[in-house]
Write a structure and sequence with these properties.
Layout (H helix, E strand, L loop, with lengths): L1 E8 L3 E4 L6 E3 L26 H10 L3 E4 L23 E3 L4 E3 L5 H11 L2 E6 L6 H12 L5 H8 L10 E4 L14 H18 L4 E4 L12 H10 L5 E8 L6 H5 L1 H23 L6 E9 L27 H16 L4 E7 L8 E3 L5 E3 L3 H10 L3 E3 L2 E3 L2 E4 L2 E5 L1 E7 L6 E7 L6 E8 L4 E9 L19 E2 L3 E4 L2 E6 L3 E9 L1
Parallel strand pairs: 1-21, 3-4, 3-12, 4-7, 7-8, 8-9, 9-10, 10-11, 11-12
Antiparallel strand pairs: 1-16, 2-15, 5-6, 13-14, 15-19, 17-18, 19-20, 20-26, 21-25, 22-23, 22-26, 24-25
Helix pairs in contact: 3-4, 3-5, 5-6, 6-8, 8-9, 9-10
């Protein structure tokens, strides 16, 4: 049996965990909005047309912040189309996804959904086909108290008080040739700087995120981040990272190492941001927003990627997730938590139907995909400070990783309650792992809960007819004595252990 040992000490802390890492993403794409969160006439829909079953699952998922309205959709979006009386809203062709957008759901409806879901909004402004003036008008509409053209327009639409929107993204994937209004790093850096200026002049207490390059594999990567931040460093707080995990080779050991690539990505972008700070001799640190991430590779071509007939809400990117996908999601969450000092926001893309942890049938039920579970458990149990761990474990070679640790793990301590939660992913395909966790300086412990996510078939999925095929169960091979927790982890398993003061 494999053996792994973890040493944690309450005085050795990475950083407090920002709860915004448990965010998600709602884009006008496929059935994410129409037939996803919004479906007037659905048996569970309320008076605003919002699906009650999806709202309930969103709350269970533990989502904290939601990015809106895109995505690639953003770069051709006119915010004015999505406010005011629905009968006056234009129907437009969406260049991003080859669809027809009715604009029956927009800013006003999204903020109603935000209030009911109990989440924070993360909005984005179009820097593809539009610029600083339109962004300033939009933030005035949303956040100015009154007495001006756009704040009074909001009031005429039935919203007297300003919307509480503080986190804003400056465009989306602007280096991508697929993007409407794609730009060079210099062009984007200039427009981001000028847009940020007028947005801050309109409302001072904003959090702003600049676009990083669209992926670590882009030819622009690295140079883009440096050039963009070299221009807008003083105006922004975050730079974005987008990471989608693929498994074209159908090799589970290689697939599990994609999260190691995410680890390198985080370290590299933080280093680039710090190089820009060093050039300025500045103590300011740009934080990282991984505001698009997920497993995505099956539904990524042909009519799964783009409608050929300008449909309204076509079935796009409806990835069906299996058990091994859930393991990757769990590993990615561990990586992000272990970088709590720099990763301060993240959005799994997307919330529902479109590469989402929630799946629905239009007019029918909603259910949890396999990836729902590690996310929901992390959002529920990861409260407080991430501890800096000493981990002694074996390694394996796969993909482009020569020495990937067999155990991926993190521990989060809540100083207010005294609870410590350990998340542990055994990446061995065929061997159980004996785990020992020494929680030093935290006093004698007792076990509160223990959970295991495992399935003998790595390709097992959840479906409408079998929605709980892959779901967590109680972990029955765990014990706590004094300050030490011991457990036996099954091969290819995601495990969660919650301890409290004895």
């Amino acid at each position: 049996m494999l053996k792994s040992r973890i040493i944690a000490d309450k005085d050795f802390v990475v950083a407090p965990l920002d709860r915004r890492v448990f965010g998600t993403f709602v884009e006008h794409m496929g059935r994410c909005v129409y037939g996803g969160i919004y479906e007037p006439g659905h048996p569970t829909a309320d008076a605003d047309g919002l699906r009650g079953d999806v709202l309930a699952l969103t709350k269970e998922l533990g989502v904290t912040i939601v990015r809106y309205p895109g995505g690639n959709f953003l770069s051709g979006y006119n915010w004015e189309d999505g406010v005011g009386p629905k009968e006056d809203r234009p129907v437009r062709l969406d260049m991003a996804w080859g669809s027809t957008e009715t604009n029956q759901f927009g800013t006003n409806e999204f903020m109603t959904w935000v209030d009911k879901a109990g989440v924070e909004p993360m909005f984005a402004v179009n820097l593809g086909t539009r610029g600083p003036a339109e962004a300033q008008n939009f933030i005035e509409y949303c956040t100015h108290p009154g007495g001006t053209k756009y704040s009074e327009l909001r009031k005429s639409h039935g919203r007297a008080e300003p919307y509480a929107i503080n986190f804003w993204c400056l465009g989306n994937e602007m280096d991508g040739p697929w993007q409407t209004g794609a730009k060079t790093a210099y062009e984007y850096g200039r427009i981001a700087t000028e847009t940020a200026k007028v947005m801050r002049w309109t409302k001072g207490d904003l959090t702003l995120a600049a676009c990083g390059s669209s992926a670590r594999t882009m030819p622009t990567y690295g140079a883009w981040e440096y050039e963009v931040l070299d221009q807008c460093f003083d105006q922004v707080d975050f730079i974005s990272l987008h990471q989608y995990f693929e498994n074209h080779e159908s090799e589970v050991v290689r697939f599990l190492t994609v999260v190691d690539d995410l680890e390198h990505f985080i370290v590299e972008v933080a280093a680039i941001a710090d190089a820009v700070a060093a050039k300025r001799r500045s103590p300011k640190r740009i934080m990282l927003s991984i505001d698009e991430w997920n497993v995505w590779y099956r539904a990524r071509s042909g009519e799964q990627l783009r409608s050929a007939t300008w449909e309204q809400a076509p079935k796009l990117l409806e990835e069906i997730y299996n058990f091994e996908d859930a393991l990757v999601i769990g590993g990615a969450l561990i990586v992000m938590m272990n970088h709590a000092d720099r990763v301060k926001a993240a959005c799994i893309a997307q919330l529902v139907n479109v590469i989402g942890p929630i799946m629905t049938e239009t007019g029918g039920p909603a259910w949890r995909q396999t990836i729902f579970h590690p996310f929901a458990q992390s959002a529920r149990y990861a409260q407080g400070e991430v501890l800096r761990l000493n981990v002694d474990t074996g390694s394996f070679k796969a993909g482009n990783q020569d020495s990937a640790p067999l155990l991926l793990t993190t521990a989060v301590h809540d100083p207010d309650t005294g609870r410590v939660t350990i998340f542990a992913l055994n990446r061995s395909t065929d061997q159980e792992m004996q785990l020992s966790v020494e929680l030093r300086g935290l006093g004698a412990r007792s076990l509160v809960e223990a959970h295991e996510l495992h399935h003998e078939d790595i390709k097992a999925i959840n479906s409408k007819d079998d929605p709980d095929q892959v779901a967590p169960v109680a972990h029955d091979r765990v014990a706590v004595e004094g300050e030490t927790l011991t457990a036996t982890l099954k091969p290819l398993s995601w495990n969660v252990f919650i301890t409290d003061r004895a």
